[in-house]
Prior knowledge:
By secondary structure, the protein is an all-alpha fold. The chain has five helices and no strands.
Amino acid sequence: MTHNPLSLKVVQRAFALSVDVHRMADQAQDAMARLSPGMRNQLLRAVNSIALNLAEGTGHPSPAKVAAFCNTAIGSCNEVELQLRLARALDIISSDHEPLIEEVIEVRRMTFGFRKHVLAKPERP
């Protein structure tokens, strides 16, 4: 069940999300450091984890292993969403960044769909 990760829309969207969050975090770096030390590093690690786990998972022939990597990516989506909501609540980022939260939710939805698709395929011997 190996895939080329770059051919999957969910990986492409997760990668683009990571780039966008990196750019936002660079702009908000001073506010993050002042109001929530460590938030920037944790947010960037979590957002990178989404695309990286999806990419790593696609290298496994076992649907169960691919699904496990999807589960980790879903957990990272949850973490990124909450970090962004916290940053918004602390006025670290403005409401202009609401589309980032919406994109995290969409990537998570797509990851659930990819996991369901993978698990529907029978395992090869």
